[in-house]
Specification:
The two termini are 61 Å apart. The chain has a ten-stranded antiparallel beta barrel. The chain is mainly β. Helix content is 11%, strand content 69%. The chain is elongated. 19% of the residues are buried.
């Protein structure tokens, strides 16, 4: 009986070991299926996940706060972000972005408009730029054919627009009249507010290509500081008629509402990196570069886990 018991005991031990190994293998396989992208197969955290993004931005707003008109503004932006998982389905992310439109430059001049030696000229240079920093906490979810991230956080925003206008004329035929006018204006905004959004990638496990979509909204509360200065001079053969200059400034509390959306095609380069090509649009309501501003354009993004 002792030998039989020993044999039975040994068989039970072998069976239990086999069941445990099978159960462990099954558990590991299940874990691999539901483990977010930011984790390795062994469950260890990847140190950091970096993203670099850049693209063109177009805007067809017709007038800004300073009264300058333009049919189309063309510019570009760049962004860098870093994130890290703090839980199998939770991560944090910091993003910094800078954008600038090409300067609007106008130079108009006309000579001999009222006889030899007469002229008139007009010059305008205006610039627009913005920068923002985002911090958010994201929750990841996964279903067959789709991976998603819903996030909440905060956005800090700085924007600036400036203009320099000049006008000059001379008319020797009319009492040798001449004069000039110069004006400069600047508007700066600093603000901070809550932001939330959703990001999803539609693709099956193992697929090289997928479709990514994203959307977010933010409310930015802050202060706008505007300053203006100018000078005017007018004279003729009878002497100086006008010679004056002045400046003014004001501060105003403002609330901006920002809505953004993007769609792209994501390509997996390897297990640790992806490239996304897409198109994005961003709407600013209230006061930004004008009463309402729409920016849009293509972008490219590269992501690497390192």
């Amino acid at each position: 009986m002792a030998e039989i018991s020993n044999s039975a005991s040994a068989a039970l031990k072998v069976a239990a070991a086999g069941l445990a190994a099978g159960g462990l293998a099954s558990t590991q396989a299940g874990a691999q299926e539901i483990t977010p992208v930011g984790y390795g197969a062994d469950g260890d955290l990847n140190p950091l996940i970096w993203s670099l993004e850049g693209g063109a931005i177009f805007s067809d707003y017709s007038q800004d706060k300073l009264g300058d008109s333009s049919d189309l503004n063309v510019g570009g932006y760049g962004a860098i972000s870093v994130r890290r998982f703090i839980d199998p389905d939770l991560d944090w992310r910091i993003t910094a972005r800078f954008g600038r439109f090409a300067d609007d430059t106008v130079n108009l001049s006309e000579t001999d408009i009222n006889g030899p030696g007469s002229f008139a000229s007009f010059d305008l240079v205006s610039e627009k730029m913005f920068a923002n920093i985002d911090f958010d906490i994201g929750h990841h979810f996964q279903h067959p054919g789709v991976q998603g991230r819903v996030f909440v956080g905060a956005r800090g925003l700085y924007s600036r627009e400036a203009a320099d206008k000049g006008f000059a004329f001379s008319d020797p035929a009319d009492d040798n009249k001449f004069g000039n006018f110069d004006a400069q204006g600047e508007s700066e905004f600093f603000g901070l507010g809550p932001r939330a959004g959703l990001e999803m990638v539609f693709k099956d496990p193992g697929d090289t290509f997928g479709v990514s979509v994203a959307g977010s909204g933010a409310v930015i509360l802050g202060n706008t500081h505007e300053s203006f200065s100018g000078s005017i001079f007018f004279a003729d053969d009878n002497g100086v008629d006008i010679d004056d200059s002045g400046s003014d400034s004001r501060n105003e509390f403002e609330a901006l509402v920002n809505l953004s959306a993007a769609v792209g095609v994501e390509m997996m380069v390897n297990d640790n990196s992806t490239i996304t090509l897409g198109y994005q649009a961003e709407m600013w309501t209230q006061e930004f570069f004008r009463e309402r501003s729409l920016f849009h354009g293509p972008f490219v993004r590269g992501t690497i886990k390192y």
